[in-house]
Amino acid sequence: MKQIFTPASAGCETLPVAMLPAEASTPHRVGDVDAAGGERRQRKIEHRLINDHFQNYKRHALPKAQLVIADIPYNIGKNAYGSNPAWYEGGDSANGESKLANSEFFDTDKDFRISEFLHFCSKMLKPENKKETGTAPCMIVFCAFAQQMELIEKAKEHGLMNYINLVFTKNFSAQVLKANMRVVGNFEYGIILYRDKLPKFNNAGKMVFNAMEWPRDNESEKIHPTQKPVKLLQRLITLFTDPGEVVIDPCCGSGSTVIAASRCGRSGYGFEIKKDFHKAACGWMVREKQQLQLL
Ligand SMILES: C[S@@+](CC[C@H](N)C(=O)[O-])C[C@H]1O[C@@H](n2cnc3c(N)ncnc32)[C@H](O)[C@@H]1O
Asked: In this predicted structure, what is the pLDDT of residue 17?
């Protein structure tokens, strides 16, 4: 079994673990129902970064999630920097190619197994309560445009029968090298997948459009080449979960989702197979917790 991040295993200070009383501000949603008598017990908020394949999830005995957020490998392979100035040294073709030319974003950006991923999600999402409305769990996948239909179709085989597509609009594009040749991309794509009932939705009475702004993230530590903005993750987490609930990211890279869950007062669990990303993510989490202690 690979390493699980805990402060002790990383040689770090103990992270503050908040105990949420079950009957805190959101009494019906925080805390687990005790199998014996329906009594609610205290559930701690915790944040764990696990250096393992998500396929090994059974080893880690995680609680079930209200929300799975996953930014899956886009299976781009060797042309990851194809339209990006990083292909050239200093972003200038006159300097010749950089070491990123003909390279992958990360060496796991190929052969991603969507069916295994959807199996994980169907097992780790909380079951739906058929008698309640407004409490159902859901998952959100960031994916390549071309992966959308495969995800939607295969999700049905795992009981995730419904979807809402998302687009995230950037006011910039990474495809700078093609800017004078063709239309360049400034969208990211995502899908909300859910079983039967509409997912919990904390919209505070406001309409939420499926084209969402992609905020630039200049504050976060830069760990992963395809790192997602923490503010966007926070927005999605607050929209689809309540404080104290569980968010899981099976492909967590930098740990950005777990950081976002922590900032929102949700438990967060992330899997990452690459040792270097996992180590850097642990470092970010430790610094995050240290900063919170200083406040
Ligand atoms: C697109 S990146 C995620 C980046 C992340 N959203 C962030 O903000 O940093 C996908 C990550 O999934 C990891 N990965 C791929 N297959 C995996 C698996 N089977 N189990 C766990 N992690 C996996 C890759 O190593 C990669 O770092």
From this structure: 38
